[in-house]
Amino acid sequence: METARSERLVVAGVTLSIAPLEHGDVATVRAVFDQLGELSRTRRYLSPVPRLTTAAATALADADGFRHHAVVVREGPGRPVALGRLVRTEARRAEPALEVVDDWQGRGLGRLLLRRLLADARELGIASLEGTASADNRPVLRLIRHELCPSEMTYDDGVVSFTAWVPSRAHHTPCGERHIA
Fold first, then answer.
1. pTM
2. By its UniProt entry, which PROSITE patterns does this protein fall under (predicted)?
3. Which residue among 81, 123, 129, 143 is least enclosed by CB atoms within 10 Å?
């Protein structure tokens, strides 16, 4: 089952489009990576990554809509400004990842992208998310706490690991107001 919906969203007064990443779209993966500064790359990949190897770019573009689901946010007719992905680690569990280019960080795009991934996870039958984030990436940790309502968060050697349930309801409810049935 693939979630093939495209939609428009408005962030900071700018209309953006969000749609599934086409399988093998290495150019978009590279374009987003190239717009990430050194700190953003280190936080995203949990180590310094000065350049994206061909093998890494190919793997990141290997989206099939089920095992590896990815969406791209574009500004205007084509400039990619963010990528979000869900990579299954088990039948009903996936690891989420976000990349928001530096000049779009701090505008709420990451929150909207994560909400889209939660909706897509529900449609794909994913029940839980688990992943890691750099312990010094305070904006992402706030996003995880507020949007994912993790059932578990642990810290080890500069990395925060988290587990969160995908809410069964389609509308967003802040973590303090969520009730898991």
1. 0.90
2. GNAT (PS51186)
3. 123
